[in-house]
């Protein structure tokens, strides 16, 4: 969607400095916005939403909506309510596309995925009280994933606070710290009590949107303030000058020294997603083996002979084989926290010489493995690798040794009665019809959907596969797929479990706005990661079963198209039908619930943290990485 930058001829923000900022970011900044602005009629300036001669009929709500337009916001996702009616109206009458969801958490997940799809900041809007609290899980995920999302909420006006207003939102009913103030959830949070606060708020948001990394903000606007008029506010010109996130010469020199002293491996994380070409060049010049986190699948092509596998949850035993048989002296870590979903904190992944760990967050290096020698570098990944390529000498012999490859077991012939569907057969069909024959974004829900997809699907390009590892909330992919499809203006596919589909789906929203989302439901009538995990750990008595559900019937009842797949022979035709459809489409796949998902590494990690098997005769069987 083209942006409508309107206002006076005197720019509030001068974006010339954006051109000097490195193109790659750990989490995308507003480079696309900057390019559009640089090509605008006023020599690259974003025009102000207000000026010194603002007519007194402009409300705070209108001013905020225009402010968001000027920050590059294209989409707003939320659930409306009376307390924020004026703000809802202002957003709806701006150039922002406003989508009314069925639940605020779903709106926040969609906003998060829309950001990753088009690299533009997104908005979540909620009414007072439960509107805010319902959105918190999705916003927690946005912060953990590194998205740029702005929450606009309503709160109770000052004269009514403490008087039991409808859905009262004040310190009488909700904790102020952490929700209405900056902290672990919000990078920036403020309650707007006066129009006079707008210039400073705009300045803070503009600076944040121009910097690398994620940023989640909360602007809470009392109902009465939304309709108050903006008068006599002078907004000075704001010159946004982001500091370049590049490593120092000393850090580059030290990195070159360490990586030149012996063979090294490259561990790619989600923060390196804009440096794919540079990482490929680095690997091929040096012969380095490459592994990746679950979120980083495809940044380095998985069919490349130097790719040894995915680490962590749903990953490949080939990584451990490589570390045992051809151990590197050091590992260059690019844009991953190396947290439990990526490493399980396994000592088998620690090279003798330690890590060279590059990240834009200076607090990341050394946290996952505090006892391991780590040289931390704060830098944008692309800028760092580009500099490294210039300084790092060519390897004496860059011929790559024969490296272990991710295991892909041949699928056994179909049984005489091909019912129910084996998950590995479903994944093979998704690989063929969706991954290889389309450019659709594929998202996998937490649970067994995550492990099957991460372990068996292969991607050869960045930004095609999305999973949430840090938060891993059920319902993220089920609802986030709408944001991905909308912002990409193309098909997006969510591989989800029946538990997540029951928890929080937005089929009705997709139908209303004609969003080309596809859901592939692994229907096994269980919370099956929990069921299988408890069984492997030998813990008995817990019930993770669900009543059988016909999701195709539910989807058709909401206006989507849907089919039920009972037999393996029907999978490919169902996938092709979904791709060809012009409306939201659900495929309800009845899968074999007893096929062991590749999640043994997670069970091993739980055991290491104190979850003990109820029987010494039943140790945690490792069916996946890390087989230690």
TrEMBL record:
InterPro entries: DHS-like_NAD/FAD-binding_dom, THDP-binding, Thiamin_PyroP_enz_cen_dom, Thiamin_PyroP_enz_TPP-bd_dom, TPP_enz, TPP_enzyme_TPP-bd. Residues 446-589 form the Thiamine pyrophosphate enzyme TPP-binding domain. Residues 597-628 are annotated as: Disordered. CDD domains: TPP_enzymes, TPP_PYR_POX_like. It holds the Pfam family TPP_enzyme_M. Keywords: Thiamine pyrophosphate. It comes from the Bacteria. Residues 265-388 form the Thiamine pyrophosphate enzyme central domain. NCBIfam families: TPP_ScyA. Belongs to the TPP enzyme family. This is Scytonemin biosynthesis protein ScyA. It comes from Nostoc favosum CHAB5714.
């Amino acid at each position: 969607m083209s942006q409508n930058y309107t206002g006076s001829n005197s720019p509030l923000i001068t974006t010339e400095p954006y051109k000097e900022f490195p193109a790659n970011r750990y989490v995308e900044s507003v480079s696309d916005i900057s390019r559009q602005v640089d090509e605008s009629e006023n020599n690259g300036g974003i025009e102000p939403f207000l000026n010194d001669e603002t007519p007194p009929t402009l409300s705070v709500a209108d001013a905020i909506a225009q402010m968001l337009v000027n920050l590059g916001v294209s989409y707003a996702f939320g659930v409306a309510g009376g307390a924020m009616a004026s703000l809802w109206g202002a957003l709806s009458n701006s150039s922002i596309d406003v989508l009314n969801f069925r639940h605020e958490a779903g709106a926040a997940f969609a906003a998060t995925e829309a950001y990753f799809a088009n690299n533009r900041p997104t908005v979540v809007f909620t009414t007072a009280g439960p509107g805010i609290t319902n959105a918190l899980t999705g916003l927690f995920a946005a912060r953990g994933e590194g998205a740029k999302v702005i929450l606009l909420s309503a709160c109770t006006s000052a004269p009514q606070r403490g008087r039991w207003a409808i859905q009262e939102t004040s310190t009488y009913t909700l904790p102020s710290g952490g929700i209405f103030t900056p902290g672990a959830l919000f990078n920036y949070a403020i309650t707007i009590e006066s129009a006079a606060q707008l210039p400073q708020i705009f300045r803070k948001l503009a600076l944040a949107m121009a910097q690398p990394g994620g940023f989640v903000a909360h602007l809470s606007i009392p109902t009465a303030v939304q309709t108050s008029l903006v008068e006599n506010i002078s907004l000075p010109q704001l010159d946004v000058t982001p500091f370049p996130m590049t490593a120092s010469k000393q850090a580059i020199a030290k990195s070159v020294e360490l990586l030149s002293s012996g063979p090294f491996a490259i561990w790619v994380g989600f923060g390196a997603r804009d440096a794919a070409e540079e990482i490929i060049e680095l690997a091929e010049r040096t012969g380095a083996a490459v592994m990746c986190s679950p979120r980083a699948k495809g940044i380095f092509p998985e069919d490349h002979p130097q790719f040894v596998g995915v680490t962590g949850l749903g990953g490949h035993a080939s990584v451990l084989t490589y570390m045992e048989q051809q151990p590197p002296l050091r590992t260059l870590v690019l844009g991953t926290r190396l947290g439990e979903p990526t490493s399980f904190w396994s000592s088998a992944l620690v090279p003798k010489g330690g890590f060279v760990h590059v990240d834009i967050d200076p607090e990341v290096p050394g946290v996952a493995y505090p006892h391991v020698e780590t040289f931390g570098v704060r830098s944008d990944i692309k800028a760092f690798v580009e500099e490294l390529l210039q300084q790092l000498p060519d390897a004496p012999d860059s011929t790559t040794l024969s490296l272990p490859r991710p295991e892909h077991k041949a699928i056994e012939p179909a049984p005489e009665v091909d019912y129910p569907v084996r998950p590995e057969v479903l994944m093979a069909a998704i690989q063929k019809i969706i991954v290889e024959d389309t450019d659709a974004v594929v998202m996998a829900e937490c649970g067994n959907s995550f492990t099957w997809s991460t372990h068996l699907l292969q991607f050869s390009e960045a930004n095609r596969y999305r999973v949430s590892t840090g938060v891993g909330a059920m319902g993220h992919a089920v609802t986030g797929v709408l944001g991905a499809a909308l912002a990409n203006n193309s098909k997006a596919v969510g591989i989800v479990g029946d538990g997540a589909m029951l928890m929080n789906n937005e089929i009705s929203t997709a139908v209303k706005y004609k969003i080309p989302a596809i859901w592939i439901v692994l229907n096994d009538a269980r919370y099956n990661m929990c069921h299988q995990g408890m069984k492997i750990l030998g813990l008995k008595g817990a019930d993770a079963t669900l009543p059988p559900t016909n999701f195709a019937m539910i989807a058709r009842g909401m206006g989507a198209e849907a089919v039920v797949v009972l037999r393996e022979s029907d999978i490919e035709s169902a996938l092709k039908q979904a791709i060809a459809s012009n409306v939201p489409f659900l495929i309800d796949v009845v899968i074999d619930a007893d096929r062991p998902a590749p999640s043994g590494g997670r069970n091993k990690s739980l055991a290491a943290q104190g979850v003990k098997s109820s029987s010494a005769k039943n140790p945690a069987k490792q069916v996946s990485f890390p087989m230690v």
